[in-house]
UniProtKB/TrEMBL annotation:
Domain PhnB-like positions: 3-135
Source organism phylogeny: Bacteria, Pseudomonadati, Pseudomonadota, Alphaproteobacteria, Rhodospirillales
Signal peptide boundaries: none
InterPro entries with a match to the protein in the record: Glyas_Bleomycin-R_OHBP_Dase, PhnB-like
Full protein name: VOC family protein
SUPFAM superfamilies: Glyoxalase/Bleomycin resistance protein/Dihydroxybiphenyl dioxygenase
Natural source organism: Fodinicurvata halophila
UniProt superkingdom: Bacteria
Length: 147
């Protein structure tokens, strides 16, 4: 069994994928627009003028495949709450680069810092509303290191 992440954007899917390609080195594996559907879509599924939006895309970030699309049905407002994507960095320099890039136009909820569980950990929400945790794993930190 495998669980994969599927993100729904509100008309910004292609922009987000391009951002993740530049920021994280994401590799686009597939992209299909609503107008490319090999079968007719149900009436009203895609509002007029939005046929060019992304019906499905798959992209890899490191060893992970993430799938996404622009939310169909026009009035659907994607809300990315209750989860974050966790991104392992090789070292503090890479963590800072990734964190700063993802934070551009977004909101930092916990700046990168040393914690009891990581030499470098931080949390943010990117400009597309996706929550990220950036962590340098694998190093045991003494309990008093977070201060």
């Amino acid at each position: 069994m495998q669980v994969q992440t599927y993100l729904f954007f509100d008309g910004t899917c292609e922009e987000a994928v391009n951002f993740y390609r530049d920021a994280l080195g994401a590799e686009v594996q597939a992209i299909m627009r609503y107008s490319d559907s090999p079968e007719p879509l149900p009436p009203g599924m895609v509002p007029e003028g939005k046929e060019h939006q992304v019906m499905h895309t798959a992209f890899r970030i490191g060893e992970t495949t993430v799938m996404a699309s622009d939310a169909p049905c026009g009035d659907a407002q994607p809300q990315f709450g209750g989860f974050s994507l966790s991104l392992d960095a090789a070292d503090e320099a890479e963590a800072r680069r990734l964190f700063e890039t993802l934070a551009e136009g977004g909101t930092v909820s916990m700046p990168l810092d040393r914690t009891f569980f990581s030499p470098c950990f931080g949390m943010l929400t990117d400009r597309f509303g996706i929550g990220w945790m950036v962590i340098v794993p694998g190093e045991d930190c003494p309990e008093d290191a977070a201060g």
